[in-house]
Amino acid sequence: MDTLKAILNQILLFFDAVGERFRRLPARGRRRVFLLALIFLLLVFLLAVLCISSCRRDASKTVAEAMDLNARTRIRGTLEAEEESSVRVSSDAYPVMTESEPVVETTQATWVPEQSESWTEPEDDPLDEPEDDPSDEPEATPEPTIDPEEPTPEPTAEPEDEPEPTPEPESTPQYATLKKHDKSDEVTTLQYRLMELGYLDIDEPTNYFGSSTESALILFQRQHDLKQDGVAGNDTQLLLYSDSAQHYMLKEGAEGEDVKALQEQLVDLGYLAAGEVDRIYGPVTIAAVQAFQKRNGLHVDGLAGEKTLELLYSDEAKMSREMQKKMEAEAAAEKKAAEEAAKKKAAEEAAKKKAEEEAAKKKAAEEAAKKKAAEEAAKKEAAKKKATATPKKGSKTTAKATPKKTATPKPTPKPTPTPKKDTRLDKFISAANSKLGCEYVLGAKGPNKFDCSGFVYYCLRQAGVSGQRLNAAGYSLKSSWKKIESINSLKKGDILFFRSDTNKSVNHCGIYVGGGSMIDASSGNGKVVKRALSAYWKRNFVCARRPWNE
């Protein structure tokens, strides 16, 4: 009963997830989904009709064969009965003569008693011909059909073909052991396979067995419960190149830097406490992964597989409800604080402006008073001179002394502030150059160990760009950054995204530094390198994103 309830719960969770995703689709997308579902149902109906008709044909054929077999059986029984009756009739018509019967008194023929025992002429008697013909003709037809399974030479040939699979164990490939610092074409093949299964970041393969190849091989051995020595022995390679090889995932008991990166991402999304980061994929981490899967509509199994990891490191990942409430509360508090700060600043500016206006008015009043006092003083001086002066007759009157005008000082214009240059791009490139030569480690994000997306995340943080850690595919879908689709339109500071020759999904990123070169954390080289965009990268270029203003 508990198992049935669990199955029903899983089915309900699945339909809830499908419904939620369907509701998030736009109207146009919903119509498309509806049409696809309708076409699918129509195909299922047609397939069911074909199956039913085929079953009916097979059933009718079987019934006909059974009826045919019954009819043949009845005919055979009838023929056998007729044959027996014909034998009885012949024996009655031609009785066997015995020695006790008187030979002399017979009127038909004078035969000798000895001849009656060996006489077989009744077969040629015309009385038996009508009965012999129908009995002989049907017997020839049913005999081939009575034993349809008699021709069985084919099964005898099968034992001759069966011994062929037995040499397979003898043809089991034997692989040469590969270890760190080896150089060969087999190492290139090994790297391709590790990239295909997700244990090694997509990169331009090399023929060198470096530390990153060793680390990826240890992850593969950890996944398959093999000896974790980083050496590609025969047993490891047999499993690696077989159909039984599993894609990269995290399950209970795993330990390492990649587990730590997963735990930190779960902390950022609110599914795990910061104190639970211990590099071990244990029960607490499994519970956190299950909560993330349930919240995001994934299959809840506690395993960090391809789909779970892809969503976990993307912009589409949903935070836990507690973290979402916390973020909303913090955002509301920040908004309120910003509004209060804006009001306070506006009040301060208004008070400052009012004070400046009052000071200007006061200054203008003082200047006006000074001017008025100067004019009055000038008038008094002119009146005094006029009273004391005794002009002669016929002399011209002296002109009135006019007071000199005092020049009012012009206000000095305020210097216009020059806009500050955005230096984030320079800091981004500087941070990338400063980490050249640092070790490549899957899942690491600094300060001295990186994978490709962890390196981009670290440089963005150093440039003052905040945000959660994403993988290469997640960064390539960041819609707030300008998308560059042509490799010929790149600018310094663009983030580049690539796929591989065997995998069409984005799984590598780097930083364009101009001059046809990029800086990236290279899994093939095992460190952060600066290199030219070779034909491999140009062939597998997907797009670029520009986080900076033009």
Helix content range: 40-55%
Order of helices and strands: HHHHHHHHHHHHHHEEHHEEEEEHE
Radius of gyration computed on alpha carbons: 51 Å
- Low-pLDDT parts are 93-153, 155-160
How is the main sheet built? 6 strands, antiparallel
Strand content: 5-15%
Instruction: Briefly note the structural class of the backbone.
Output: alpha+beta
Average pLDDT value? 80
User: What's the arrangement of strands in the largest beta sheet?
Assistant: 3-8-4-5-6-7
So what's the overall shape?
A: elongated
- The total count of strands amounts to 8
Alpha-carbon distance between the termini? 63 Å
Helical segment count: 17
What does this structure look like?
The chain contains 17 helices and eight strands. By secondary structure, it is an alpha+beta fold. Among the domains are: 2-160, no CATH class; 424-546, endopeptidase fold (from Nostoc punctiforme) (Alpha-Beta Complex). Strands 3-8-4-5-6-7 form a six-stranded antiparallel sheet. A hairpin with a 4-residue loop joins strand 6 (517-522) and strand 7 (527-532). The longest helix is centred in the middle third of the chain and has 68 residues, at 321-388. Mean pLDDT is 80; it is low at 93-153 and 155-160.
